[in-house]
Amino acid sequence: MSVSVTSFGTLDDQTPVSRVTLCNANGTSVSILDYGATLQSIVFAGKDILLGYDTIDGYVNANGSYMGATIGRFGNRIANGCFLLDGQKIQVSCNESARHCHLHGGDSGFDKKMWRYQIMCDEEEPAVSFSRTSPDGEENYPGNLQVTVTFTLHADDSLCLDYNATTDKNTVINLTNHSYFNLNGYDGEDILDTLLYVNADEITPVDEGLIPTGEFMPVEGTPFDYRSEKPIRDGVYGQHEQVKIAGGIDHNFVLSRQGREMRLAARAYSPNTDIQMECYTDLPGLQIYTGNFIDEQDGKSGIHWDRYDGFCLETQFFPDSVNQPAFPSVLLAAGDTFHSRTCFCLSQKDHVR
Hints:
This protein is mainly β and about 350 residues long. The protein is built from three helices and 29 strands.
């Protein structure tokens, strides 16, 4: 077990960026940047399974891909960047101008901020905590929000992300991580033959602007039915209006659950590498994104990426929840504490530890 800190370059204003690397006794390692509290690499069984960049310039100039970043205050989309809170209209930025909506925290979201880090570990399970204060009025959200995200690499090769937040005014919150996974390795084949299981009977369908309609659509008989493991390509190339709208899968899956207990949300498996990843969460939704808009980007080692070269499993509250009364509440009241946990559990089917 070890923890190391190395330089990852500087921002344009000469702010230094650090990379914290956690390693366990199995040789699995996880690297996180203090810029955006960004997951930069996950090395398991000799493969780096995260898309990303070798330099800080790649992340700063990522053209809206949010590669590996911690997302906040509000992940996913808010229609027209507008909602009511305590009877008051709140207008946040519409940074996705083509769809006139607020996306992933806006023009100045958590993905673009420097975070303070503190290393916290015991003999077997290295961890690092990233914290920041989102001041009252940042992106026009109310309340001083104290946020902490703790990354822990466990002895069984699971990576757990614990989110905690408090506020001094009523506000809304929807925190997630936007990592792009490729279980073939970032330099391997695309994700289309990766096998996927999703523990969801419904999705929240979207309109042409990728905003939920407020309805719940059963996955039965649609390309979104991953309740039995099947290749990702079966959904991406499925003949369905919702697939056409998104150019693949970019939808919120309504997870089957009882309350806020941890449960399996999804499982992905690469037949090429024998690497399996299970995603557990206590949140109600899972945004599955199949990299439909990864458009001719150059990443680590100069590898050229295109659409369907990575997939995201974004645990979350539902998109546009602030405007959808039938969706789970995203209100964080003054003085209350928000907590959620997401774990990505890695294994090889023939080498289960």
